[in-house]
Amino acid sequence: MRYLIFTIVLFFSCSTPEKQEVNLLPKPQEIQINEGVFTLSNNTSIIYDSLFLNESKYLQSILKNSLKGSNNSIILEKIEGLEKEEFYLNVSTKELKITASTPEGIMRGIQTLRQLLPLGFEKNGGSAKIQCLQIHDFPKFRWRGMLLDCCRHFMEKEFVMRFIDLLTYHKMNVLHWHITEDQGWRIEIDKYPNLTKNGAWRTEKDGSVYGGFYTKEEIKEIIEYASERHITVVPEIEFPGHSVAAISSYPFLSCTGKNIDVGTQWGVYKDIYCAGNDSVFTFMEDVLTEVMELFPSEYIHIGGDEAPKFRWENCDKCQKRIIDENLHDEHELQSYFITRIEKFLNENGRKLIGWDEILEGGLAPSATVQSWRGEEGGIAAAKSGHDAIMSPTSHCYFDYGLDATDMEEVYFYNPIPEELNAQQAKHILGGECNMWTERAPQETIDSKVFPRILAISEVLWTYGEKDYEDFYNRVQNHYKKLDDLGVTYGFEGVPIKSEVEYINDEFVVKLIAGNRDIKIEYSTDSVSWTSYSNPFTISETSTIYAKGFKNESEYGNFSQEVIKCKSTGKKVEYIIAYNKHYKGKEENNLTDGLLGSIENFRDGYYQGFSGTDFEVIIDLGEITEFSEIHSTFFQYYLSWIILPTSVSYLVSDDGENFTEIETIQNEIDLMQEGKFKHDFLIKNRTLKGRYVKVKANNVSKLPDQHPAAGSDAWIFIDEIIIK
Questions:
Q1: What does the pLDDT read at residue 68?
Q2: What percent of the chain stands above pLDDT 90?
Q3: DSSP one-letter code for 187
Q4: Which helix (DSSP H) or strand (DSSP E) does residue 613 occupy?
Q5: Do the beta carbons of residue 519 and residue 154 sit within 8 Å?
Q6: How do the domains of the chain map onto residue ranges?
Q7: How far apart are the C-alpha atoms of 126 and 109, rounded to whole Å?
Q8: What is the pLDDT of residues 328-364, one digit of tens each?
Q9: How far apart are CA 22 and CA 208, in angstroms?
Q10: Confidence at residue 397, expressed as pLDDT on a 0 to 100 scale
């Protein structure tokens, strides 16, 4: 083994006490704390195997200077027989040694060392005393990734590199870089200059032009930066869907050949690459050739998600392709498209990854599936002998609000589904958190990703039983490190949540702090505030207000309306079942007295029905007189949630024979922009009955003018109010 010795001067004091707190994220597999400290000084040397030259330079940059001297040493030692990212870190008073078989292992050990350095050291230098200890560490999963969407909102080169640093610091090893989309093409392609001349820019509603792209030189710089830190950058070049920016640049790529604008709205567009046009495949191969010249990654991500088949169904060339290739339908046509591209990638020594929709119509022979619509796609892939990456919306979508996925939920995620046996589980490469940016410009990314990424980093790195109390305490201490790194982190969870149950003709309200350090005050009039300690009751329609305090500072606020009426708490029979992904409070949802948010339809108060009508029967318990019925539906057409075309109300004394009260036609444009709720209301009536039936007709398929025309439309409802 050959060592090289380099020298530089550091200036340190020697007044640090002989015992330090050790706080590491993710938690190492094995750690033993010993007596004493290692003191960095102007007499410390760095000794390293020649294999670790780059890592030694990186370490020297962290320590601000080279190191020389003879009093004690930092040693980067090579030994055989360890796994790729496995390392030992042994700290004694005389030497600090990181031992590994590979540069990757050394780099992970350096990140542990970084977290052991005192606060402010990386920014200001100064004295550094490190606790004597022994660590043996290695990852649980080999794929520990984060997706960064730079299409919906463009991220500056320096910001991307900064995020690579943050991934490195927390022992993540994959940056999944989403760089082509409907709303922007972000990668320079020499053979097709219009992709960035035109496709990288969109004209917003106010007339302003928004966009940007990365030159090849900038991409090379980012990849080199990541490579030095042993972060793999996996590019995502979307097809056949999410391709409007490319089509706007080169209309021949579409089924219609018509000129269209770069996408300005969020959601899914019906214009996708034409699968019947050979020139599209030439284009894709040309693009991917230049992509592969830039990115050394073993994997190329091709998207494959959310590709409406509307254009293909009405395209002569696509229909001819289906006949010529003996395909059954448009789903198999998508499989043909992806398989053809996979063959091209394989011939060039690369592997294909796609979102779980690539399972539809048959999975390409050696494709890896990234499962996002729950875990089903990953399970299906693993059972068929294909590799999978788990990133379900339930735990891994950091663009979602904390009420959908908080830090504790992320921490308890297990990427290995119980349905898999030991052999099948080997196909789960790991997991990935996703940061989509429809509603997240660059300046908001930190607060959405942190601290939740701390949880996923530990999920993907650390073996053993979960201990949230221990993890939570380490996170509190880690915030100081994030402050040093300039991270503007957000909340761990919704600061204040509620559990409201209707019992014995009144609401029982339990307020829940988002973490154990929050103290809550509440009010029903926003004037008189009471310290919360135990559940309380409310007997009438009211609004609950609450505010949290952490370390004496205000930490979030909360408000919730509770509605008491004749249907509150009554039994609901579902003639048509709700979708399992949007089940709300299940059988109690429509009569629980709680309304869903306009801003966040994933708040757990809505029930969703995809491609089906809505029909329920409410049992009021006895024949009851009433004069009003409200049913509140939600619309957000960019997420395929559309108001029903009509809502009918019927009444019955026996639950069998119903008389129609009224059918209300929807007069609101199904393409009306924004998020809003609409109350299908009848009032000032004299009505009587025990059973009330509510029926809502779904438009079924999204209309032709919708960007995702032909896809199943959703109906969303939160409450039925009878007065």
A1: 63
A2: 84
A3: B
A4: none
A5: no
A6: 3-137, 143-484, 496-562, 571-722
A7: 22
A8: 999 999 999 999 999 999 999 999 999 999 998 888 8
A9: 50
A10: 97
List the structure tokens of 236. 């995502």
Asked if the model's pLDDT at residue 671 lies above 90, the reply is no
- Cβ-contact 37, 130 below 8 angstroms: yes
| Mean pLDDT to the nearest integer, 55-83 | 86
Q: Which two tokens stand for residue 395?
A: 């735990």
Superfamily the domain 143-484 falls into: Glycosidases (3.20.20.80)
For the segment(s) 571-722, the CATH number from 3.30.1490.20, 2.60.120.1190, 3.10.350.10, 3.30.565.10 is 2.60.120.1190
398-430, pLDDT tens digit by residue? 999 998 899 999 999 999 999 999 999 999 999
Name the DSSP class of 713. P
> To the nearest whole number, what is the mean pLDDT of the chain?
93
CA distances in angstroms from 207 to 163, 197, 210, 261, 707, listed in the order given: 31, 18, 10, 13, 21
Q: How far apart are CA 72 and CA 457, in angstroms?
A: 33
DSSP state of 139: -
Q: Is the pLDDT of residue 669 over 70?
A: yes
CATH dotted code for 3-137: 3.30.379.10
Q: How many CB atoms lie within 10 A of CB 464?
A: 8
Q: Is the pLDDT of residue 15 over 50?
A: no
Tens-digit pLDDT profile for residues 370-391? 999 999 999 999 999 999 999 9
| 16 C-beta neighbours (distance < 10 Å), count | 16
Average pLDDT over residues 302-306: 95
Beta strands in 230-293 (DSSP E): 232-239
Q: Which residue type does 500 have?
A: V
Q: Which residues contact 177 (CB under 8 A, 6 or more apart)?
A: 147, 148, 150, 160, 233, 234, 235, 236
* 128 confidence band (pLDDT: 50, 70, 90): confident
pLDDT at position 65: 59
User: Radius of gyration over alpha carbons of the chain, in Å?
Assistant: 29
As given in the structure block, the two tokens for residue 132 are 């004597």
For the record, the structure tokens of 312 come out as: 């293909």
pLDDT the model gives residue 9 = 33
Sequence-ordered list of residues with C-beta below 8 angstroms from that of 179, at least 6 positions apart, any chain: 150, 151, 185, 186, 187, 214, 235, 236, 237
Burial profile 33-50: b = 16 or more Cβ within 10 angstroms, e = fewer: eeebbbbbbebbbbbbbe
Q: How far apart, in whole angstroms, are the C-alpha atoms of residue 275 and residue 240?
A: 8
Q: Is the pLDDT of residue 522 over 70?
A: yes
User: What own/partner pairs with CB < 8 Å and gap ≥ 24 does 249-252 have?
Assistant: 249/185, 249/192, 249/194, 249/195, 249/197, 249/198, 249/199, 250/192, 250/194, 250/195, 250/283, 252/277, 252/279
How many whole angstroms separate alpha carbon 4 and alpha carbon 31? 29
**How far apart, in whole angstroms, are the C-alpha atoms of residue 651 and residue 657?**
8
Structure tokens belonging to residue 224:
């080199």
| Lookup: tokens for 616 | 């329920």
- pLDDT for 238-256, tens place per residue? 999 999 999 999 999 999 9
Q: What CATH code would you report for 496-562?
A: 2.60.40
Q: How far is CA 306 from CA 142, 269, 438, 636, in A?
A: 28, 9, 15, 17
Q: How far apart are CA 202 and CA 265, in angstroms?
A: 10
Q: Give dist(CA 225, CA 219) in Å, integer.
A: 10
